[in-house]
User: Fold tRNA-2-methylthio-N(6)-dimethylallyladenosine synthase from Zavarzinia aquatilis.
Amino acid sequence: MAKKLCIKTYGCQMNVYDSGRMADLLAPLGYATTEDAAEADLVILNTCHIREKAGEKVYSDVGRLRNLRAERVAAGGAPLTIAVAGCTAQAEGEEIMRRAPAVDLVVGPQAYHRLPELIARAHRSKGEALDTEFPAESKFDHLPQQSRVEGTAAFLTIQEGCDKFCTFCVVPYTRGAETSRPVAAVLAEAAHLARLGAQEITLLGQNVNAYHGEAPDGGAPWSLGRLAHALADVPGIARIRYTTSHPRDMDDELIAAHGTLPALMPFLHLPVQSGSDRILEAMNRRHTAADYRRLVERLRQARPDLALSSDFIVGFPGESEKEFQATLDLAAEIGFAQAYSFKYSPRPGTPASMMADSLSEEVKSERLARLQAVIADGQRRFNDSCIGRTMPVLFDRPGRHEGQLIGRSPYMQAVHAEVPAALSGRILDVTIESAHPNSLGGRLAADPAEAAA
Ligand code: SAH
Ligand code: SF4
Ligand code: F3S
Assistant:
């Protein structure tokens, strides 16, 4: 009988990618996916551990699933297997098993390929199904190919783990040491995704620009810049993005690629975290605010229409008002097209969690609000600056109104325009006429008949 699998995904794009791969892995075992936990035989919580709120989420979710299971069993229904995967699983696997006995199995991000065996083990005897090893074999060699692409965009993990050890961050502990997938494996997966309809590929890695994958000919490892050039030659792949980058790993080859490789989209997520050198040092980011400004300048020289997004943390231990002001200044000066900002959250086991001078929630909230106002202003300015420009838009979804399609600009903005449905899946030049907080509106630069030619 067909079984149903429900995966709830939290955290970053890497978890989204992993959830897809887990679904593909379990499909041959008879699991069809569902969005509704109530009708599932197996629920996988793919967790994120990055901030405290994210890490605690798993316990409330498990509580709800436990009740669901109890109700169902009482009504004579099928049992429900509860699995916890992802970064919280890796960081707190044993604690989860202890604190939440309703959980049947725990699997860390590097052990997903062993899921079928773990499920069988959990069904045989509870309490033995915990796998948070960092196995010597790579999960990528044991996972089936992706089975589908939604729309025209796909994620492709090329690098995992992190050796940077920023003092606030759990990722080096939850995802392990930095590893890169071989070039040949990446190119094969990209070609496969293109055959499934992907035109736009986002390369993923916790430190994606530290990529140094084994060369196809056994020569020196390839950098991300070189890989991007090879990916642009894969038939069907029109657009390449990558995330997340570390400023320290932005090498000359990659910067140059932004100028010479049209397929490389002019939108870059480049987290800076803070504009204060003292805080950057305490965070172990190993660059200064001036380094970051210079890097942005070089990128804009290579690609003048490059737009940037970033991540910020406010209220790092000991952050003074003046130091926070430096962050505001940097955010205003660079003018990010978009950015994420977070209140610092102390994470167990990280060096920053041991630092004194923690700030009150009030101060953190107040700083976050001020920073978010600057970021929102930058985003509005950027969207406004698009009015009057003509840019290529990849259309792949129906719009809200009849005759409309929605697509993505090079800068990841949603763009709606009057476009015949038959042109869905095409990249068309659009002249932007209106800007909204989270989207743009425009009209086809050429008449649709011409555009279709
Ligand atoms: N690998 C990426 C991002 C990792 S997590 C990078 O190096 O940029 C995504 C973002 O979460 C980080 O950029 C940071 O801004 C934020 N973050 C990480 N740890 C945090 C913590 N302890 N408290 C608050 N924000 C945090
Ligand atoms: Fe975390 Fe820093 Fe590594 Fe990014 S670079 S994953 S913030 S340790
Ligand atoms: Fe969260 Fe893990 Fe991603 S901690 S942000 S799911 S790498």
User: Anything to note?
Assistant: The CA atoms of residues 303 and 412 lie 16 Å apart. Residues 11-12, 14-15, 48-50, 86-87, 170-171, 174-175, 206 surround FE3-S4 cluster (ligand 3) (CB under 6 Å). The mean pLDDT is 94. The domain at 390-452 is CATH 2.40.50.140 (OB fold (Dihydrolipoamide Acetyltransferase, E2P)).
